[in-house]
Amino acid sequence: MFFYVSKLLGFFMRPSNFIATLCVIGIVLVLFDRRRIGTWLTSLGVLLLIVFGYSPLGNVMLLSLTERFPPWQDNGRAPDGIIVLGGAIDSDASVARHSLELNTAGERVTAMLELARRYPQAKVVFTGGANSLVAVSPAEAPVAGDLLRRFDSAPARILLETESRTTDENAVFTARLVHPKPGERWLLVTSAWHMPRAVGVFRKAGFDVEAYPVDWRTRGWIDATRTFGSATAGLERSDVALHEWIGLVSYRLSGRTSELLPGPKRP
């Protein structure tokens, strides 16, 4: 049930979808002679379009997430395993085209290949099933497994988790799959803006991981005052950031994480 509710709420709470919904409702009300409230809703939609589409708000919301965890530093001790969260592979297009098709989070996959080559003794876990609400899609993990084998990763070191649909399930199902031992070092690869929630659910699952953030999308806090040259660019940034903040709040309220905004552990 949580999966379906989160998908529906996530759809309507994205600024682009919310603005479109407001405008449609407003226009319909105007057509049915409810001009006052219809005009008000349409005007609110246009105002929100300007704010989320052109102002730096999307960058500010995103930066408060991406800057939570610093880039991973190699201290000379090789990791025992590398966990890569799904969300970067367009599995439908990949299967249909018989080729790897990535989306805007493709850095997760390139980081996976780089780490697999750098640490040839480490296990590589890709966790990602089919998370579409309205269609039956192939899981991401088998596509990632094929890619790793094509890049000469030994099959014995590849572990694929194909059932998870949410970040919470990524953590729970991966913990069951690998049974991490005390003292082992596991890297968690996902987008920097997604890292706080991802680390939070892995900690809740009793799986101690080290953050390996990728897919930053900004240069840093220097972009906190940077406006957008098109509404589509600003809306896309705002969609990602607000969706993730809503995810953090819902995960905290539902007990899936123990902190609202998880961060690095203090020494």
Describe this structure in words.
This protein has 267 residues and is α/β, with parallel strands linked by helices. The protein has two domains: 2-65 and 228-253, no CATH class; 71-214, HUPs (Rossmann fold, 3-Layer(aba) Sandwich). 50% of the residues lie in helices and 9% in strands. It has helices spanning 2-13, 15-31, 35-54, 57-66, 91-97, 107-118, 141-150, 167-178, 195-204, 231-253; strands at 81-85, 123-127, 158-161, 186-191, 210-214. The chain has a five-stranded parallel β-sheet with strand order 3-2-1-4-5, sandwiched between helices. Helix 8 packs across helix 9. The model has no long low-confidence stretch (mean pLDDT 93).
Compact description:
It contains ten helices and five strands.
What is the secondary structure topology, with strand pairs?
Blueprint: H1 2-13, H2 15-31, H3 35-54, H4 57-66, E1 81-85, H5 91-97, H6 107-118, E2 123-127, H7 141-150, E3 158-161, H8 167-178, E4 186-191, H9 195-204, E5 210-214, H10 231-253
Helix pairs in contact: 2-3, 3-10, 4-10, 8-9
Judging from the principal axes of the Cα atoms, what is the shape? globular
Low-confidence stretches: none
Name given to the CATH architecture of the largest domain: 3-Layer(aba) Sandwich
Number of helices: 10
Radius of gyration: 20 Å
